[in-house]
From TrEMBL:
Keywords: Heme, Iron, Metal-binding, Oxygen transport, Transport. Belongs to the globin family. In the C-terminal section; belongs to the flavoprotein pyridine nucleotide cytochrome reductase family. GO terms for biological process: cellular response to nitrosative stress; nitric oxide catabolic process. InterPro entries: Globin (IPR000971), Globin-like_sf (IPR009050), Globin/Proto (IPR012292), Riboflavin_synthase-like_b-brl (IPR017938). This is Flavohemoprotein. It comes from Acinetobacter amyesii. It comes from the Bacteria. Signal peptide: none annotated. One of its GO terms (molecular function) is nitric oxide dioxygenase NAD(P)H activity.
Length: 252
């Protein structure tokens, strides 16, 4: 990035932050309309409850603020890349997010896509995307190299569903019958289900209450009130039973 790029980006962060809700809603709407495949990637229940969707755009703004010293954001980068790897986010998806984010910035700031300002934001986004893609690549490689490990999604069969005080406990094993990597209490997996009545899959993270070792994972699912038909927990509780398949990413 040139010094002019840095100045332009930093000068517009406060305006974008003030318009954070407009930026984020415009961004997601545009991106999901133009790339309906991403409806399988982003949690639509989170989008509609407004719980999470601000995080991505907010992280880009936070990064832009510290553009001269991105090491300030090391902790955030670790957190984001861990979440992304759990969701099997791919390098090529960064250009889709980037394009939509830049269009949204152009819309919110009311400047043309061809302006110097958008060129500056593009340079900033590409710099951040490069950092994230690099960290995610090494995380995928580390996961795949572990004994019983894998990168991306792997099919698991539900072996058992038990009722608990708060919900249901699911025991799952890899469909291929091979070993699965051990995990510690507090680590999480993403579980992806088919949404009944829609041609869509949805992921959600589940944390382990206890260490996991051997050939299966055990996690508890609790019902979610006031959620949409995309709530993965409610789908698991109401529609999934022993013998059914789910897609699972490796513990992180
Ligand atoms: C520079 C680019 C990006 C930044 C700064 C970024 C930042 C973030 C942040 C801060 C979160 C929230 C983490 C949490 O849950 O605590 C997140 C989650 C997520 N990101 Fe990214 N992200 C970027 C690119 C991408 C790309 C390219 C994709 C794939 C299309 C993606 C997909 C997701 C998904 C699916 C989630 C989970 C959100 C949910 O479903 O609730 N992100 N990202």
């Amino acid at each position: 990035m040139t010094p002019q790029h840095i100045e332009l980006v930093k000068a517009t962060v406060p305006v974008l932050r003030e318009n954070g809700v407009a930026l984020t809603s415009y961004f997601y709407k545009r991106m999901l309309n133009n790339n309906p495949d991403l409806k399988n990637v982003f949690n639509l229940d989170h989008q509609s409850t407004g719980r999470q969707p601000r995080a991505l755009a907010a992280a880009v703004l936070a990064y832009a603020e510290h553009i001269e010293n991105p090491s300030v954001l090391a902790k955030a980068i670790e957190h984001i890349t861990t979440k992304h790897v759990s969701l099997d986010i791919k390098p090529e998806q960064y250009s889709i997010v980037g394009e939509n984010l830049l269009h949204s910035i152009s819309e919110v700031l009311d400047v043309p896509m061809e302006s110097d300002l958008i060129a500056a934001w593009k340079a900033a986004y590409l710099q951040l995307a490069d950092i994230l893609i690099g960290v995610e690549k090494s995380k995928y490689e580390a996961l795949a190299a572990e004994n019983g490990g894998w990168a991306g999604w792997r099919a698991f069969v539900i072996r058992q569903v038990e009722t608990t005080e708060a919900g249901q406990r699911f025991t799952i094993a890899a469909q291929d019958g091979q070993a699965v990597v051990a995990a510690k209490a507090g680590q999480y997996i993403s579980v992806k289900v088919k949404v009944p009545g829609h041609d869509i899959e949805q992921p959600q993270q589940y944390k382990f209450d206890a260490d996991q070792s051997g050939s299966q994972f055990v996690f508890e699912v609790k019902p979610e009130e006031n959620h949409t038909e995309y709530s993965v927990s409610n789908i698991l509780l109401n529609h999934y039973k022993a013998g059914d398949l789910v897609q699972v990413s490796a513990p992180l």
